[in-house]
Design a protein that fits this description.
By secondary structure, this protein is an all-beta fold. The protein is 0% helix and 40% strand. It is built from no helices and four strands. The chain has a four-stranded antiparallel β-sheet with strand order 1-2-3-4, with no helix packed on it. A hairpin with a 2-residue loop joins strand 2 (33-41) and strand 3. The N and C termini lie far apart (33 Å).
Length: 70
């Protein structure tokens, strides 16, 4: 979102593999990176973890071993 111009701009990702669209996820912005976890679309629940680099505009899936959802 461009605060100065007051409009949304679509970002073209530089990475080939990107997370699916979803709702109900959690996101954190830290050190020019966005971390995304989980979410759902209709009845499909996601338990994946992704990092989006705001400088390179690339997504990277982060594999978490033995991750349990309570």
């Amino acid at each position: 979102y461009d605060l100065k111009e007051n409009f949304w701009k679509k970002i073209e990702y530089a990475s080939q593999k990107n997370p699916d669209g979803r709702a109900g996820h959690s996101c954190v912005l830290y050190d020019e990176k966005i971390y995304l976890f989980g979410g759902e679309v209709f009845n499909q629940k996601y338990r994946d973890f992704w990092l989006f680099n705001l400088i390179s505009l690339t997504w990277q899936e982060i594999k978490c071993e033995d991750m349990k959802i309570l």
